[in-house]
Design brief:
heterodimer, A: mainly beta, globular, B: 115 residues
Chain lengths: 116, 115
């Protein structure tokens, strides 16, 4: 069965600090997809990134970067020079290609608070 | 662009009451989903509709029913609300049923309290 664990329930940092959000997943599939979603205080969920299991290249988008390591089943998310606007709940999610309808399993979420 | 629209945004029910959550998308997506979000549990899939005319149970379907009214609309009904159904409900859609590679587009959520 697929499972996603975000062990950090809450993280609090001061603006301009770097912060890493951990995500560990479990799956028996060889083909799967990993996602990160952001939920700001307004409540809607916003897609950040998608990664497939065959692409272990790290990705950088502005202040955001993602580190995918199959050897440790992890897909961690780093925010460099954090800003108050980064305050949100962040969800990691997993989808297995073998599932008939592509069930997306979410982690519990990490609440990030960035203080000015 | 409207994207995925959910109504209502807030609702308070008494135990045993019924209600329907409405969801509509204007992106011509084939697949639609209902999730619930509870503290410390992430989002869990209630029901989904891979395409117009089909619906299937997700992870936590008990106490809910759904209707895929047409390609745009997917409603979630609570026939007899229970306090355990207090949650934030999200509707989502994807272009294709093959969600493995597709990202979800979410509505803004409905905060439901059952007293």
């Amino acid at each position: 069965a697929q499972k996603v664990t975000q062990a950090q329930t809450e993280i609090s940092v001061v603006e301009k600090e770097d912060v890493t959000l951990d995500c560990v997943y479990e799956t028996r599939d060889t083909t799967y997809y990993l996602f990160w979603y952001k939920q700001p205080p307004s409540g809607e969920l916003v897609f950040l990134i998608r990664r497939n299991s065959f692409d272990e290249q790290n990705e950088i988008s502005g202040r955001y970067s993602w580190n995918f390591q199959k050897s440790t089943s992890s897909f961690n998310f780093t925010i460099t020079a954090s800003q108050v606007v980064d305050s949100a709940v962040y969800f990691c999610a997993l989808s297995e290609a073998s599932t008939s309808y592509g069930k997306l399993t979410f982690g519990q979420g990490t609440i990030l608070t960035v203080h000015p | 662009n409207a994207g995925v629209t959910q109504t209502p945004k807030f609702q308070v029910l008494k135990t045993g009451q019924s209600m329907t959550l409405q969801c509509a998308q204007d992106m011509n997506h084939n697949s639609m989903y209902w999730y619930r979000q509870d503290p410390g549990m992430g989002l869990r899939l209630i029901y989904y509709s891979a395409s117009e005319g089909t619906t299937d149970k997700g992870e936590v379907p008990n106490g809910y029913n759904v209707s895929r009214l047409n390609k745009r609309e997917f409603s979630l009904r609570l026939e007899s609300a229970a306090p355990s159904q207090t949650s934030v409900y999200f509707c989502a859609s994807t272009r294709d049923r093959s969600l493995a590679a597709e990202k979800l587009f979410f509505g803004s959520g409905t905060q439901l309290s059952v007293l």
